[in-house]
Amino acid sequence: MSRGVGEFEVIQGAIPDPFAILVALVTQLGDIWFVSLLLVVLFVRSDRVGRDRIAIVGGFVIGAIGLVFAAKYLFALPRPDQPLIALSALPPSLQPVYELTGYASGYGFPSGHAVVSTVTYLALAETLPVSTRRRRYAGAAAVITVVCFARVALGLHYLVDVVAGAALGAAFLFVAFRLVARYRSAERRRTVALGLGVTLAGMSVLVSGAHYEPLVLLVAASGVFGLSYVFDERRATPTR
């Protein structure tokens, strides 16, 4: 049974072919590689307090990715077969880029890009002390909407996939913030957030039957969790 509601005819029909590559590139705002790079850059450029905040967001993002893997393997629902444009319709110089950014394999429900972008940008909007809170949330909402729209426009997800993904991400983030808010110290909050990420990564390994992607996530999550203690030891060691 299809999950579609006729969204592809409306959305894809309104996008001219030359804009297909732009739509594909926009989705990278919610891709794991881009989000990971963004958090690393913010972590490196932040002070001690800021690094604790970014580490907490990182723990949430890891947990969100684990949640995505678990949900995808649990529901095991296919992606739609409705590409925005045929690869052969693009200039040869753009075909490799579009193939990397405009195509995807694996299960389609829920949208991982919707979950990850929702958790990442809403968490940063709540955490980063820049501009005003209203503007931060407006910017986050704009990015999430664009990413979700692009995933449907590319024919990689049904509308229900991105709506469910955004809802799942928002619900997870609400619970995650409530959980870390129970602790006063920044170190303890960071530990709880990263521990949550490791826990959900481990859950995704079990649900998927030890598929390689959840396994990689678990290894990465464990590594980040371990590095957090290295930073703590360096803080506690007086410099001479």
TrEMBL record:
Gene3D superfamilies: Phosphatidic acid phosphatase type 2/haloperoxidase
Keyword Transmembrane: yes
Xref: SUPFAM superfamilies: Acid phosphatase/Vanadium-dependent haloperoxidase
Keywords: Membrane, Transmembrane, Transmembrane helix
All residue ranges annotated as the Phosphatidic acid phosphatase type 2/haloperoxidase domain in the record: 57-177
Keyword Transmembrane helix: yes
Sequence intervals crossing the membrane: 20-42, 54-75, 107-125, 137-156, 162-180, 192-209, 215-231
PANTHER family listed in its UniProt record: AT30094P, SPHINGOSINE-1-PHOSPHATE PHOSPHOHYDROLASE
Protein's name according to its UniProt entry: Phosphatase PAP2 family protein
Organism: Halalkalicoccus tibetensis
